[in-house]
């Protein structure tokens, strides 16, 4: 079946560090891939997306590339800020449903 | 401003009582969803509706019921048959690739 696996947290980094949050997926066909972010006390927001192989989604300094050969969609940011502290969810869209990973909590220290 | 409103933010009920969570959207989206979030579980789909007067079960529909009599509204009833109802519930709507979430309702059943 379709599923999303992302690295377990929490991930704790110092401000200005490089961030990678791993995400791999299992799906039939060619799903669209997403990263969502949930800031404390808020609902989920779409961070970025990619709809086909080799697409790169980017927003707010975050990037992720749709790698079909490795079935991955890792989230990266070159220099994190305290305000990036949140929970990040990787997701795929398939068969009119969106399937989420378990979420990775990111904590950035000043 | 367009958005999704979930109410109330916190809800407390005694075991054995049914409780209905409200979700209203003014985004004119056709599709609406209910998710449940438990620590370490990520988001799990309870029910979804692609159009008025039609809805489908998600992965964990047992013990829940929904209705979609109006495009704007997708209330979720947590019945006494739900064995572990205490959780954070998120309502969402979608159009195209973008999923919009409410701020959630935290339900505590004692």
Textual characterization of the structure:
The complex is a heterodimer of chains A (110) and B (110). Chain A is built from no helices and 12 strands. Chain A is an all-beta fold. In chain A, strands 2, 5, 6, 10, 11 and 12 form a 6-stranded mixed β-sheet that branches. Chain A starts with a strand and ends with a strand. Chain B is mainly beta and 110 residues long. Chain B has no helices and 11 strands. In chain B, strands 2, 4, 5, 6, 9, 10 and 11 form a 7-stranded mixed β-sheet that branches. In chain B, strands 1-3-8-7 form a 4-stranded antiparallel β-sheet, with no helix packed on it. In chain B, strand 4 and strand 5 form a beta hairpin. The termini of chain B are far apart. The chains are: A mainly beta (110), B mainly beta (110). At the A-B interface, strand 5, strand 6 and strand 11 of A face strand 4, strand 5, strand 9 and strand 10 of B.
